[in-house]
Fold:
Amino acid sequence: MNITYEERRRSFLSCLYSMQESLPGLLAMFFIALFSNNLAGNPNPLTLENLFRWLDAVIGPVNHQQFFQILNSNFVWNPFLMGLIIGNVFGVPDSWKRGLSYIHKLMPLGIIMLAPHFIFSHAEKVGMPLILIAFAVMLFTAVITMLLGKLLRMDDRFYSTVAGALSTGDPHVVAILMPMLKSKGGQVINALGSILLFGLVASFLLPILGHALDMDDKAFAILSVFGIGNTGQMFNSAFGFSYEAGHWAHYVEALRHALMPAGFLFVFFVMFIRARIYRDDENVMATKAHKKLPLFIIVFIIAYIVVQFHVVKEPAHLAIFELVKWDFSLAAAALGLSLPLREIAQWGVRGIVLAFTSGIIRLAVLIGVLLAAAHFNFPLI
Amino acid sequence: MRRSHTTDDEGFNYMDNSGQEEHDRDMVGIILAVAFMVLTVIFQRTGLL
Structure:
């Protein structure tokens, strides 16, 4: 018989369950993380990350980048992939499920600990004109993606997830937005795949367009970073254009990082306010399950403000980021295990259509701005 | 019927997160996050890191 949580609850620590109930699932997440990434303190050399690095060495560099970096392999992608394969091939034993529910503790934990990663002063070097342009393009992309998603009659949790990740230029923002927007696992992974596919195609085609438009190295670096993002993909594009553009992309990348929280918080607050306005509309689902502003978002915002005053210096920031890697590796393992492939496929190709349409509009706007700046000799960096 | 990836035979769905349980899980995550960050900063400032 199923006993409800409220019936078994003694304190807020009841959500940890008993050791006997949670240990098998926690061990499953732990071992998937251990065999996925080279995490701090993990002595295991037989990781998926090392396998990809070995394959990268066999394939050789592509535009000075490792091929699996262009595919965006990282500490979220690797354990997710391993969990997805294990879950779909072998299934998920019932004894794991209490432990796997720790994903809901790991998500707010990881999001808050990401705060020291976003330091605005790191981006000041690029200058105010570029900061303002990048900020405006990010908000424009988020708005246009949400509007197009509505036009395509997509589930609002799905299109807002695409909007957050595409506008910030970091596909892994889908994982941050999952507990914020209350997106489904299948929507999150479909959105991630759609954005990565757009980035992959764009990163190979954009250098051709850049040369056709006779863009200079700095302008093309800006176009790659803010028109594609996705780390490995923007470097693939910039280095594909020229070695100098690749170096300028490294220079302006700090700005994309610094603006990231503004992008995903913007999408969250738009959807949160919308859900409060259209309270009775059954088509409005994103953030609706939140009765009020979630406490972990408030704590994240406070932490984000505090770290701007350089409270978390190196190496404390690095130590915290290693914990974030552990946290998201464990969470991604649980997410991968939760998803039958059909749940990812059920959201169809609209995510791809949306990512490509919005992505192309963003590129067109950015190219227009960059060519105008070049025409009027306006220095962007 | 194919067994669900997320729901056990007692009806517990590990991807469900709502009500009091969600509140408690958030609280555990927040306490751990703040504790980790504060401890790391203290360790650094006292020369232990």
About this structure: DSSP finds one helix and no strands in chain B. Residues 8 and 47 of chain B are 48 Å apart (CA to CA).
